[in-house]
Amino acid sequence: MRAVMFVLVVLGFLGCFGTHAFLVDTGRLNSPYLSTFGFLALVMWMSYELAGEVLMKVQLSSELLQKEEELREAVAEERTRIGSDLHDSVTQTLFSTAAIADALPEVWDRHPEEARRGLDDLLRLTRGALAEMRALLLELRPASLLEKTLGELLHQLGGASAGRTRTPVEVEIESDGRLPAEVQVTFYRVAQEALHNIIKHAQATEIRMVLVCDDENVSLTIHDNGCGFEENGSSATGMGLHIMRERVRAIHGQLRIDSSSQAGTTVEVHWVRQDWQKNKA
Predict the structure, then answer these.
(1) Which residues make Cβ contacts (< 8 Å) with residue 136, sequence separation at least 6?
(2) Domain residues for 58?
(3) Which of 140, 159, 191 is the last residue before a domain boundary?
(4) In 3D, which of 238, 210, 243, 239 has the Cα closest to residue 224?
(5) Is 12 inside any structural domain?
(6) Using one digit for the tens of pLDDT, what is the confidence trace for 171-190?
(7) Of the candidates 136, 156, 128, 126, the residue with the CA atom closest to the CA atom of residue 83
(8) pLDDT tens figures, 188-226
(9) β-strands 169-173, 207-213 pairing
């Protein structure tokens, strides 16, 4: 746009300059320096425009540097989080697995029944570590969240959570299918955050996730039998509820959370394709 304006101004100036020179040469105008003043005005205007361009580029460069710094901080925080997850889950699980494996030969001869329980624990821990590693690999390769269906991702999340604790996670997929990228990632992140909150705060002994997914609607319900919390109270601080709501709002979905000390907590996410398309249009 600026280039077009510049060309038009230059053409206008040349036209005025030619007309002015013709009038001076034919004796109809006695102001031979008028073209000089016009030229100086054009130079001043070009200088003003150039200064504006320079200031804009300086501002854009400053914003770019700030974004790069924020990106570096985000990458560092993500690496720290993944390292912490590796230490808190996989490393400890593998340590427990190694301890059980070391003790099994001696226990097997003296207490066969206890040794069999040890084998069951060994199998559970190994499967949990495998599921946890797969979940962490998803964090390292976010694009892989789109390579599987939402149901497959939820099974993987449930396996990782069950492997991290002794709390069983039941995953029920009534129907499954492909979803828009941002919708699938949002459902995965909400389920991930909900499971994290349950494990960290709820003291639950049972967790259940139910997914109903078709071409037009998606509903995900996550329920636990834990101690519950007051959503607007201090116990909910830092539990990621605000982030969950923002994620669901971004895809024009609905999030409902019911919690009580007697009935545990239920998180429900519902998304309608028609509403999403209407709001994106």
Answers:
(1) 82, 85, 86, 90
(2) 40-140
(3) 140
(4) 210
(5) no
(6) 999 988 888 989 998 999 89
(7) 136
(8) 989 988 988 888 888 889 999 999 988 789 999 999 998
(9) parallel
50-57 long-range contacts, CB within 8 A, separation 24+: 53/2
Domain count, the chain: 2
Phi–psi pair at 223, nearest 5 degrees: -130, 140
Report the alpha-carbon distance of residue 160 to residue 171 in Å, rounded.
12
pLDDT higher for 156 or 16?
156
Same domain? For 197 and 123 the reply is no
Let me know the angle formed at the C-alpha of 86 by 83 and 90, rounded to the nearest 5 degrees: 170
Cα(239)–Cα(228) distance, integer angstroms: 12
The Cα–Cα gap between 151 and 173 comes to: 6
Q: Is there a single domain that holds both residue 59 and residue 128? A: yes
pLDDT at 109 over 60: yes
Both tokens assigned to 64: 């770019």
> Is 213 inside a domain boundary?
yes
pLDDT tens per residue, range 22-59 = 665 666 656 555 555 565 566 666 766 777 777 788 88
How far apart are the C-alpha atoms of 258 and 268, rounded to whole Å? 9
The Cα 18–Cα 66 span in angstroms is 50
